[in-house]
Design brief:
Blueprint: H1 3-11, E1 20-28, E2 36-43, E3 46-53, E4 65-71, H2 74-84, E5 91-95, E6 103-111, E7 114-121, H3 126-135, H4 149-172
Parallel strand pairs: 5-7
Antiparallel strand pairs: 1-2, 1-6, 2-3, 3-4, 6-7
Length: about 170
């Protein structure tokens, strides 16, 4: 399906979901290593939210715990697809080097033969944030994907400070 066909289908209110799947997990690092963290899987319109041990030393030793199951509306899937349509790269990696512990948000959207993935190390991405805002209403209020615009701003501020420090060091040489 081309981007133009996708836009035309969404505009006409037609379903564009033939093989939609979504995966999100948070993997704890540092003091969060080995802790139970959110995992969300959507296949078609069926959502399953579990807590799983997504990071560990050696091997997993905790069993997943199902939090909820839901049916996601086709319009929500179409909204997610329209958000990722303009992303030129199929893999997006962001990191905030100013945070040593924390964790990694992993998000993947697969439809037909196309995969868009986010690996977000102690930060978030604006498109992934919009996607989480679409998914969160299907989740228990106290179990939402915990990402905010502030996470992104903090990361941008970190990189700005690091660049200034590097420039200062260059001038000393």
């Amino acid at each position: 399906m081309t981007a133009l066909t996708l836009v035309q289908s969404i505009a006409k209110g037609q379903s564009v979901n033939s093989d939609f799947s979504f995966y999100y997990c948070f993997a704890g690092l540092g003091s969060n290593m080995g802790s139970m963290q959110p995992t969300i899987r959507i296949n078609g319109t069926k959502l399953i939210y579990t807590y799983e041990q997504n990071s560990y030393y050696g091997q997993k030793y905790k069993s997943p715990d199902t939090i909820c199951k839901a049916t996601i509306r086709q319009s929500s899937i179409d909204s997610i697809l329209s958000l990722i349509m303009d992303i030129k790269d199929s893999t997006i990696y962001e990191t905030n080097p100013c945070i040593m512990s924390g964790g990694i948000h992993n998000m993947s959207i697969v439809t037909n033969n196309d995969t868009t993935s986010f690996t977000l190390h102690n930060t978030f991405h604006r498109t992934a944030l919009k996607i989480s805002e679409i998914i969160n209403p299907y989740l228990p209020k106290d179990k939402n994907i915990w990402a905010t615009e502030q996470d992104i701003i903090d990361c941008e501020n970190c990189w700005t400070a690091m660049r200034k420090r590097w420039e200062k060091e260059k001038k000393k040489e």
